[in-house]
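Q: What does the assembly look like in three dimensions?
Context provided by user:
Components: five
Sequences:
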Amino acid sequence: MSRKKRRPKSGARPSMKKFVRKRSQKIGLPPGSIVYLGEPAAREVRLSVLDYDAEHVAHRELRSVDETFPFKDTATVTWIDVAGLHDTTVMERIGEHYCIHPLVLEDILNTDQRPKFELTDEHVFLVLKMLRFDTDTAELHADQISLILGANYVLTFHERAGDIFAPLRERIENGKGKMRRFGPDYLAYSILDIVVDHYFLALETIGEHIEALEHDVLENPDRALVERIQNMKRELIYLRKATWPLREAVGALSREETDLIRPSTHPYLRDVHDHIVQVIDMVETFRDMISGVLDIYLSSVSNRMNEVMKVLTIIATIFIPLTFLAGIYGMNFAYMPELRWRWGYPALWAVMLAVMAGMLLYFRRRRWL
Amino acid sequence: MSRKKRRPKSGARPSMKKFVRKRSQKIGLPPGSIVYLGEPAAREVRLSVLDYDAEHVAHRELRSVDETFPFKDTATVTWIDVAGLHDTTVMERIGEHYCIHPLVLEDILNTDQRPKFELTDEHVFLVLKMLRFDTDTAELHADQISLILGANYVLTFHERAGDIFAPLRERIENGKGKMRRFGPDYLAYSILDIVVDHYFLALETIGEHIEALEHDVLENPDRALVERIQNMKRELIYLRKATWPLREAVGALSREETDLIRPSTHPYLRDVHDHIVQVIDMVETFRDMISGVLDIYLSSVSNRMNEVMKVLTIIATIFIPLTFLAGIYGMNFAYMPELRWRWGYPALWAVMLAVMAGMLLYFRRRRWL
Amino acid sequence: MSRKKRRPKSGARPSMKKFVRKRSQKIGLPPGSIVYLGEPAAREVRLSVLDYDAEHVAHRELRSVDETFPFKDTATVTWIDVAGLHDTTVMERIGEHYCIHPLVLEDILNTDQRPKFELTDEHVFLVLKMLRFDTDTAELHADQISLILGANYVLTFHERAGDIFAPLRERIENGKGKMRRFGPDYLAYSILDIVVDHYFLALETIGEHIEALEHDVLENPDRALVERIQNMKRELIYLRKATWPLREAVGALSREETDLIRPSTHPYLRDVHDHIVQVIDMVETFRDMISGVLDIYLSSVSNRMNEVMKVLTIIATIFIPLTFLAGIYGMNFAYMPELRWRWGYPALWAVMLAVMAGMLLYFRRRRWL
Amino acid sequence: MSRKKRRPKSGARPSMKKFVRKRSQKIGLPPGSIVYLGEPAAREVRLSVLDYDAEHVAHRELRSVDETFPFKDTATVTWIDVAGLHDTTVMERIGEHYCIHPLVLEDILNTDQRPKFELTDEHVFLVLKMLRFDTDTAELHADQISLILGANYVLTFHERAGDIFAPLRERIENGKGKMRRFGPDYLAYSILDIVVDHYFLALETIGEHIEALEHDVLENPDRALVERIQNMKRELIYLRKATWPLREAVGALSREETDLIRPSTHPYLRDVHDHIVQVIDMVETFRDMISGVLDIYLSSVSNRMNEVMKVLTIIATIFIPLTFLAGIYGMNFAYMPELRWRWGYPALWAVMLAVMAGMLLYFRRRRWL
Amino acid sequence: MSRKKRRPKSGARPSMKKFVRKRSQKIGLPPGSIVYLGEPAAREVRLSVLDYDAEHVAHRELRSVDETFPFKDTATVTWIDVAGLHDTTVMERIGEHYCIHPLVLEDILNTDQRPKFELTDEHVFLVLKMLRFDTDTAELHADQISLILGANYVLTFHERAGDIFAPLRERIENGKGKMRRFGPDYLAYSILDIVVDHYFLALETIGEHIEALEHDVLENPDRALVERIQNMKRELIYLRKATWPLREAVGALSREETDLIRPSTHPYLRDVHDHIVQVIDMVETFRDMISGVLDIYLSSVSNRMNEVMKVLTIIATIFIPLTFLAGIYGMNFAYMPELRWRWGYPALWAVMLAVMAGMLLYFRRRRWL
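A: Here is the predicted structure of the complete assembly.
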């Protein structure tokens, strides 16, 4: 293996970044300062509104945050989705209009928040992590989704302008399921459900990765595997960090007694809670498995060493004594009677073959061959 | 060992599948969608009804789900067993007629559910795992059993058309035990009891497997053992995942105060709870033991390496100096007085034997021989 | 070490049996079936009765279970000890007469029960494990003791006809201590106290065994030690399994408010609870110690390997270059001027000795010598 | 590697001191004795007062502790910062004037206190640890900050005369944020917030260090890394010891109902609590990662050993048999027919090359080359 | 290393004794039997009484236990210290006069009691462990101190006639601190405080020992270190066993509402509780550190092995091929044209030097040199 291969993949750096985000710029600022800590983005903030009740449904992409405000006071369910958090003025306007506490706004912008649930007088506030496992780099990517559930509206905030909510929006527009008949709390639940479904997706892919690792360890245990195993371990640590607090948050949410959540929604929240528990179960199982893979790797390595040693030992212990014998009769003493015997040379060969056979027998008895 | 032997057994793949089942097809569907996630089956759904009270008993195999409905309103205890979950229309009909919440139906069809207990207004809902340890592949097979206990009926759902309930059915038909005199809650308990009894069966077989592994590790510690040990570890992880939530579920069931469960049934539920605790105890013990087996294996391997090294070292350290001596007197210097001495050759042999004896003594003192 | 020595001791099998007892024969039987799961015994069931109050005391060995019944209704304290559980008719008769729930009877016969405590309307039911550490096989033997405390009687059940209760019986007969003045609850406590005292005895012997193991590991770390260490680990796992639920059981018993236990007995129960906590403490300590012993063993092995390698390396690195030099002057080139020099041979010796000295110095500097 | 390099860095000693501070001089003294346990300092105690309300603000450096007393009874918020704890008379004067319990004073002076929270009738008392990670020595430095929150004043005590509070003081003087409008409880919160922000800073640097370690382990796994890994582990242990009790303390503080903390401050305290939980999460993650780095190191080392062994084995197994063959034909037997054959020498070369090629093929098949 | 050095130090035996004390002699005795389980002592029991209130103080050494009785009913605070527990008649007399429950007396005499707290109607009963770390044997020595706090007296019992309480007695006699003005509860607290202060002392010494171990592991990792590390681990296990229940006991004591403890003493008890928590923290930290030391040791050993292997490999791979070449030209074939070439010998040297240089280059590239 050439030394070049040993360089850490450039991927190592972002994976550490996932755990620690630079906060240095915030030190000294008053708390509740609205500072975006994520990666800078060139794109514009995308605002989309979905307004519906049992009878009608309307979907609109808006240009300015002020256009969302009229929806607040209608009787219909309004879902405002904000994709892109870098424009702090947009956030401030929303915060003002929907009476969001500055600390909540700060949490929305601080994208390495742990999943959490908070209940204020007017809102239910949820921080979620949408996960995606990138098969090429074997890395988890997380997109923080903040959800605010008000009396008749749901606000969602996330960084990337992805289409993760597209199937849900379609379902509402097509009037499938109970979505249209139920209130904003059921919408919030549906968003939560989609997020947790993506956890299962990520787990499926991770499961396949672990299987592939296991296969490779058995086929060809080379050094790069240790790094891959460690990376997988780290992704599982990350996944664990994302799921345990989520369980807590959803558990609290499903127990909470608030007017914002109708009793009929409670079974659904308990169901999603069960799913999260299953995710945690699987994460813990995968952690056990990945340690198992490391154990197999280590025992493969020591096994290989053992085999190398055996070959060396067999060859050396057979030939070293024979070489000694040959050396003896290569000596130039004036008086060495054997050298002059007629059958000396063949006799020595006989002795040598006998030694060799004895050695081989010994090795067989020890099960080295 | 040839490279071919190192390929993972085809069994590795299903064992991973056991932990993660494909859910991708469900993403985007509304919650409560009745989609079967298990393996597709060609067979028909088998419906059987057992209707009994203290005086009479009747057992029938039915062709259509609608034939089960008349039993619902009789005063007798009715046990409807549904084997095969792939026909979602059957499930929907049952769901409607017995007023089962869509989320419960979803749980019944989603066959990698964790064991759980739920109490609704009209039902007790239990998810169980019937386990079977396959000695040939050293793998656990699980069949999910969902049980719904209503006012005077018990519904059970499972995938495989096995005869796991045959002994129980016979007991009822023969009128043995208290079955016929007691209500549907005692029937539900009896089913639970059979499931837990199968856990003990599985544990017995696993115990024998671990013993065999231990024996093999001591007899002939070869590489394939690591895989077998890891597989056994994984099966124990699976077993653990199946038992811990079951304990919780049965614990909750036995504490719950509901009209569906008579007070006289409570001691039986506590008894089955005790059995589950014992199963968990044994699973934990087996986990400790299997790590012990791995420790023995690893120390065997390093011990073997040690022995190989010792043989090499003994042979090499004895003969290398002697070969050097032989080399000396094989040199062709014009002026080497020893070569001409009358007793040079025998004297050299004497020196060599002395060196050899010294070495052997040294090795003995170090306890290498 | 010959291959024969590597066979597992026949003792390995029973020790696994200790953890899993065959239950296969019970599957399908109705719960509460009175089936003896222990080892079959040829002996007869031994029944003995001790009847006492402050004034008088009477001890009798009985032939039939029916002879015990008159004692039930006397005002004196009656202790009925049943040694041998294989005769299920005896058990059934007792069960009927003393109104023992079938599940309790089942627990008494099922001799791999966990220690437990149950309170019914009429009885306190305790399952205990009497432990004995067999120094020869380094194995723990457990005898299950079931205790039923009624209004004015104590029933004890155990498998082996040992004399474990002899000292207690003597104490009662001699009227020593408070036994005679106190009620059946104090008798039950005294039995519990004896059982826990035997735990300390077992721990003493195990402590000596661990010390011996530690000594052997330091003196002569050979392979058989790993097995002995693993066996000891297993016995500690077993001990742990026996003590943790006992703590729970005795804790519950000492907190329970029931007429069957007088307030004056409570401090004694708390005292025995303290003793069990101390036993658990020691078990955990021993577990830590035995891992320490394994660590010492493993580091001894790797240390030995190290020493072997050093010897090989020192010998090889000294003589391989010298042998090369000797080989050079053993060549038969027609034109090798050194061969003809007058002082060539002594000069070569000088060079060789210098190389040797240099090597030795190098090894010393590296602290290999 | 020369022996000199193996000496522990002088940094090892202070790092142990961090965990255990000499208390021997205190033994036998009555509790509540005001004895400074930190390192002696030559500097003077520095006293600074910041007095403000919404309208005005005043900052003063004072020479004597008595000058601070008039501020106590003003209606404005007063922040008295004491830098340097070695002058016990200063402490005693403050204690008397502000009615501080001797045990609290003792805690302030005892600078290896765990973070804690205490509520007395008149004060909230907090012990915090200001952390700083020194990149050169890879060590954490902690400065204990004790905070006393009274009716309208805040007292802070710390050892080093650093400028950690400078940004906060500036913010107050410039009237930025809510500081000036809010009371002393908000000031206390702000100090707490700054301390926790520094934890994130320390974590960022530690994260970079772990990354660098990981990189070095992959690039060049030499022995010094084990020490660096162990040092990092120890710093993480220290960090953990500082954060877990802090979580507890802030959790208790945010739940406490006291007049000293206004309801509007509670969300801020919960927010800082969330931050501490996040810090703990990261510390645990880093602990997992650093063990991963150790695993990579150990597998690198064993991998290297493996490679070394392979090279030795390949060279030795190729040349030892060949050398034996050469030795054979170097023997001086009178009757060795091969020696006289015309093509003997080239034939031997052919045999030797064949052996060599066979060996190389074998090694390739085993994937050693 | 000679075999003699490998014998376990005689210190190993007492250290095991510390964990398990012989109880065999007690089995069969009625509970509450007053049997001394400690080591037999030749000395007499030493009784000393200290009687004080705010105005006067008197200290007396008594010959007979009956002389202490008059002090019981005085209004002053009386502290009776009993050093030496082997005289059971003394204990019985005290037990009778002070109305001590036989089980409490049994606990006092049973000197391997866990630290505990008990509240009876008339007494607070505390069992403490006074610890001392012996630097020579690197062992902890524990002396059990039992404390009984009554209405206006404190009784203390301990085995060794040490002067551990001398500084406290002096403080009382000199009237320093609050001792004289406060009641017996404050005296009990002061004793507790001294005991915990000695824990810090022990920890300081242990910390120095761990540092020394770490230094030695880095300087000269020889085999004896494993034993020293294991011994230290064991002492930390012992320390842990002594502190965790103490925390519980003092926690319970400080929460208990009893007339025996005045409210003003509560903050002091909470303070000592905080100290114990700190001790536990440090014990856990030391446990982590000592495992770190073991890790460093193990990696040092494997590193050394690696270096040894490298030297062997370098020497062998350089000289084995060269020796082969020399062997070739030492053959006696009749027709070997090279042997007759004029520049054959120098040419061979050139080839050999080239091979050597190539090898060295290869090793350098692999970073083995």
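Follow-up: Residues 1-14 of chain A have pLDDT under 50 and may be disordered.
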